[in-house]
Design brief:
Layout (H helix, E strand, L loop, with lengths): L20 H8 L3 E5 L2 E4 L1 H20 L3 E2 L5 E3 H7 L1 H4 L5 E4 L5 E4 L4 H11 L8 E10 L14 E11 L2 H21 L4 E5 L9 E8 L5 E6 L18 H8 L3 E3 L5 H5 L5 E16 L9 E3 L5 E3 L1 E8 H11 L1 E2 L2 E2 L10 E5 L5 H16 L4 E4 L5 H11 L3 E5 L1 H5 L2 E6 L5 E5 H10 L2
Parallel strand pairs: 3-7, 19-20, 19-21
Antiparallel strand pairs: 1-2, 4-6, 5-6, 7-8, 8-16, 9-10, 10-13, 11-12, 11-13, 13-16, 14-15, 17-18, 21-22, 22-23
Bound molecules: 5'-O-(N-(L-cysteinyl)-sulfamoyl)adenosine.
């Protein structure tokens, strides 16, 4: 992409409405713009990151055996009256009346809709287990939307729902999502610690929040420090018994504030980390909370009808964008992990209009793209200082700087955003290095 044609409205000044660094940097880096309180437009740079994160989530959900669907954003209130949540959910639910005076709502979550899909289509234990997920927009009329995407009113969520015949089988589905979450967040460059949690309005008796530690986190959290270092599982066979992996992670102390047991935790002494945390995902096992009132029954092996056992599993996809920035930035801007970076390389032409620089840049741009790299080519007629400040702000993992003096010697500069390490290389060597890295 040529920056001269790209829609990237960066800001030099710090926007006053933004209180936390991720919100400030997303505005400054031209990723988002507010539409109304807690509701945002995603500009091209933000959209690219969001889609990278979505794709990681999707790949790990698919690997764990979940199947992608798309449910409506606008739901019928009737289903919520069946489950009993129409009245329970409260003012966070945006209620809408259609022209026929029917009660509709903008979905804050989808347990009712997915249970309805299940009961209309699956009747026998032979057709389960199933795990259905979507990556879709939710609306919660939060009383205090704040911190940009961190607590929005409209936000992108991955929500998965599992259906099983027995408690034991549904525990396996829960464990599959638990392990998939460890891997998903690690791939985004985040360390998310699973913590015992209260299940709140979703309900159920078994729940974990996946928490990224950050000073700006909304809640107080406590955990064993080993959980911050523990390698995440690789080459997972999701059909195998995953309980040992889950036990390994849950036997170390970790709890959110409302589940915190000070006496237990005190025994850990110097090994206890007490910090603030951002909840990037939550898993719930709630058994028959929805299947009983909504009559989602399946015939068991003996023909008897039993309510299906369910769990639900959310990831705050848009919140992850903010959490990654909270975890990875410096005073100059964002420092994207490679896996979610909007572009891999920022190619900077220090003297647009200079024949040597223009030609070298055009060749590099072509070669990197042919090598499968996403390149943002700063071909603007701007001062070097402006270009450097922008590329640092938007945080691409690699910068390639092409200037007239270097080009006379056949050299360009390659710089890493995270370490700041620089080296001078020939064009060929720089291209070879960037196309080999990953
Ligand atoms: N139905 C279940 C799981 S599918 C559910 O709704 N879970 S949740 O309420 O915990 O939400 C899932 C994730 O969405 C949370 O872990 C959080 O990361 C994200 N999330 C929740 N509320 C907001 C919000 N207001 N703004 C941004 N992200 C949010």
């Amino acid at each position: 992409m040529r920056l001269s044609r790209y829609f990237l409205p960066t800001l030099k000044e710090t926007p006053t409405e933004a209180q936390i660094v991720s919100h400030r940097l997303m505005l400054r880096a031209g990723m988002i713009r507010q539409h109304a309180a807690g509701i945002y437009n995603w500009l091209p740079m933000g959209t690219r990151v969001l889609q990278k994160i979505e794709q990681i989530v999707r790949e790990e959900q698919n690997a764990a055996g979940a199947q992608e669907i798309i449910m409506p954003t606008i739901q019928s209130g009737e289903l919520w009256k069946e489950s009993g949540r129409y009245d329970d959910y409260g003012p966070e639910m945006l209620r809408i009346t259609d022209r026929h005076e029917r009660d509709m709502l903008y979905g804050p979550t989808h347990e009712e809709v997915v249970t309805d899909i299940f009961r209309n289509n699956i009747k026998s234990y032979r057709d389960i287990p199933k795990n259905l997920y979507q990556i879709h927009w939710k609306f919660r009329d939060e009383i205090r939307p704040r911190f940009g995407l961190m607590r929005g009113r409209e936000f992108l969520m991955k929500d998965a729902y599992s259906f099983d015949i027995s408690y034991e089988r549904s525990k396996h589905a829960y464990n599959q999502m638990f392990v998939a979450y460890l891997r998903t967040f690690a791939r985004m460059g985040l360390r998310a610690v699973p913590m015992k949690a209260d299940s709140g309005p979703i309900g159920g008796d078994l729940s974990h929040e996946f928490i990224v530690l950050a000073d700006t986190g909304e809640s107080a959290v406590f955990c064993h420090k080993e959980l911050l270092e523990k390698p995440v599982p690789e080459n997972v066979d999701y059909e195998a018994d995953l309980q040992p992996i889950v036990d390994e992670w849950t036997s170390l102390y970790a709890a959110t504030d409302d589940m915190h047991d000070a006496a237990a935790a005190e025994k850990l002494g110097g090994q206890l980390v007490s910090a603030r945390g951002i909840e990037v995902g939550q898993t719930f096992h709630f058994g028959t909370k929805y299947s009983v009132p909504m009559k989602a029954l399946v015939a068991g092996p003996g023909g008897e009808e039993v309510p299906v056992q369910m769990g639900s599993y959310g990831i705050g996809v848009s919140r992850c964008v903010a959490a990654i920035i909270e975890a990875s930035h410096d005073e100059k801007g964002i420092v994207w992990p490679e896996s979610v970076a909007p572009f891999h390389v920022g190619l900077i032409n220090l003297k647009a209009g200079n024949a040597g620089c223009d030609e070298a840049c055009a060749n590099i741009y072509k070669a990197l793209q042919a090598g499968g790299r996403d390149v943002l080519y700063d071909d603007r007629d701007e001062r070097a200082g402006v270009k450097f400040a922008d590329v640092e702000l938007i945080g691409l993992p690699w910068q390639l700087v092409v200037g007239p003096k270097g080009i006379e010697k056949g050299l360009i500069e390659l710089k890493r955003r995270d370490t700041g390490a620089r080296e001078e290389l020939s064009i060929e060597a720089a291209v070879a290095k960037l196309t080999a890295a990953g």
